[in-house]
Structures are given as structure tokens and as C-alpha cells.
Design goal:
Strand order of the largest sheet: 3-4-2-7
Strand content: 5-15%
Largest sheet: 4 strands, antiparallel
Number of domains: 3
Number of strands: 8
CATH architecture of the largest domain: Up-down Bundle
Structural class: alpha/beta
CATH class of the largest domain: Mainly Alpha
Distance between the termini: 24 Å
Length: 389
Amino acid sequence: MLKKEINFMGVRYIAITISMIFIIGSIIAILTLGIQKGVQFVGGTEIQVKFKNNVTIDEIRKLFVESGFKHVQIVQVKTESKYPEYIIKIKGKEGDETSVGSIVAKRISKVLVKVAKENAPSGKHDINKVSKTDLADILRKANVLKLDKLATVGVEKDKDQYSQLAQEIIKERTAKNDFFNSVDEAVKNIKNEDVKNFIKDNFYAGNYIILKVDTFSPSISVEQTEKAVTAIVMALIAILIYVAIRFKFDYAVGAILALVHDVIITLGFFSIFKQEFTLPVVAAFLTIVGYSLNDTIVVFDRIRENIKLMKNKKLFDIINISINQTLSRTLLTSLTTLFVVVVLFLFGGVALKGFSFPLLVGIIVGTYSSIYIASPIFYFIEQKVYKVK
């Protein structure tokens, strides 16, 4: 317990006014600026690609826009590789139906070829882009191992050999996530001369690698949106029921309104700073809900204990004492968690920035709401509804 008690409840009206300003500002930002949704929620394609030659985001964007992809977003990925690596996001109808052989997939491929400044030899496959599955399929169709389908080893055994061969050819590239500078480098460990010659005749070493492709159709995007909203709403309902059973209904109201406060303000910051709302972000928001609730429950539990122990004191004073008694614990846990999240935000790269940003805002806002929002709301209900002094 702190030696000098802070009168948290005494400034509750100021705190609630500040919160209302942030909530109204957040709602205005969300309505005017909107929430920048990721491809999981609007449909489209997300490609992670590495180029052998040095290219800039502006060069890539210019070529994509010239090719009709007006809503392309490009983010550079920081890696230890000497080759530049980018995540290219094509949202909405422009990025639909990007399965192999589709018109959009061919358009994207042509743009990447222009970016990489490579001239693909006619009819040849790029050894840097082909996957293990595709390579095994190419080898199988060409029957370069000249396996006898009628042999007792069976077809499945033949397929295993093709797959194993494909694995051997590109395992070095996948291990380093890097380029083959030539086809000779790709086949240097292959002992079968027929296979080696076939690869040399039918493949070439291009200037870029597609590391990952994620495609979301509009129907899947609608489903993902519904699931995300349902997950957050169900979490809030479950919390309401749990706190109402564990404590009293007025405690539950305070906890839920504090959580809604946290979510709205965090969404507002998301909108203002133009962060992208993706599935990991949904996980981050659920984490915020759980983390903020944990702080609130600790304070509520101490309030409930002190109500039994301090029967001669007013509820106003009991709440103040309880918050002061749990303050050091709340600040220590919040700060230690915040340090980790700051490190993730600063050094976690593109993949973790979207996840760590809402956590960064949510931990600060959640700690504040546990002290200045949840408890005053509980006090207000006790005072106005139950007439507790």
C-alpha cells in the first residue's frame, strides 16, 4: 500500500470528460478516415517477393499502377539479406481470382517481370519461383527419370521419387530463402545426368522469388469479417456473464463499459495512424480485452474484500483505498508488459507491427480505464440505483 493515498475518485469527472473527448474523437476519426482493412477483410492478394536487383517502392508502385492495379500497397520488409524484399497487397476486385493460370495472376507475373527487368526465355520455367510441388509435377509429366509405371515399385513410389528429387533441387534455396544465380547452381548436387540436362534445357534463373502468396475471395472476406466481429462481441458477452456471476451485475457493467472504452479509443488511434486491420489485429484486440479485464478484476476484487472489512467507511473511500492498494501491482504489470510490446513494435518488423500497435495503445488505455472508468461507473450505479452512500 502506498504511504500517501491518491484521490482517484475525486477526479473521476475530469477523467470521464477526458475519456469522452477521446471516444468522440475516435468515433469521428473512424467515420471520416475509416478503418484500413487488410486483404482478409476486403478480398484480394498479398504477395511477398524478393528481387535480385535493387528496386524501390516507387518503381514497383509505378509499374503496378501502369498495369491497372490502382489500389496496390507496398511495404518493404527489413531482412538480413542483401536483396530487397517487399510485401505487395492488391485489394478488392483487382486482386481476385489469383489462382494459377488466371488472368490476374498472369498480369501480376508480368509486372513482377518488369520490376525485376528480366527477359524470360520462351517456354522455360524460372527455377527461382517454382515451388516443390510444381517442380515435382513438371518432372513427373516429363518422365525425366524414365520410371516404368508398370514396375512393381508402383506409381506412388514413382511420385515419391519425383518429390524427393524436387526437394533436393531447391532445398538450398528454401533453407536460405535466397536465389540460385544460375541453373547450374541449382542442379550441382543432382547425380542423374538425364535429370540434370532436362533442368538445364527447361529452366532458367530469374531475378525474383515469390516467397508467399495469400489470396482471399470476397466471400471469404465477408466470412472473416463476420467471424472477427462475432469473436469480439462473444468475448464481451462472456465477460459480462462471468463478472455478473463472480461479483454483481453493477461490477459487470463497469467492466464492460471500460472494455468498450478501450476498444473504441484503440480503433480511433488505428484509424488516425492508418494502421491496417488484419486477422492478427483481431487477436490483439481480444488480448487487450483480456488484459484490461484482468486489471479491472483485481481492483474489483479488492473493493469487494474491503466492503466486508470496512463496514464503517463510505463506498467512495473504500474504492479509493482499494485502487491505491492495487496501484503498485497494476503499474508494475502494465509497465513490464509495455516494455515487451514496445520492443516488438520497434524491432519486430512488418509482420509484428500490426499486432503490436493495438497492444501498445490498448495496454496504456486499458490500465487507465481500470482505474478511472470501471470503478467510477460501479460507484455511480451503486449510488444511483442501490442508493449506497
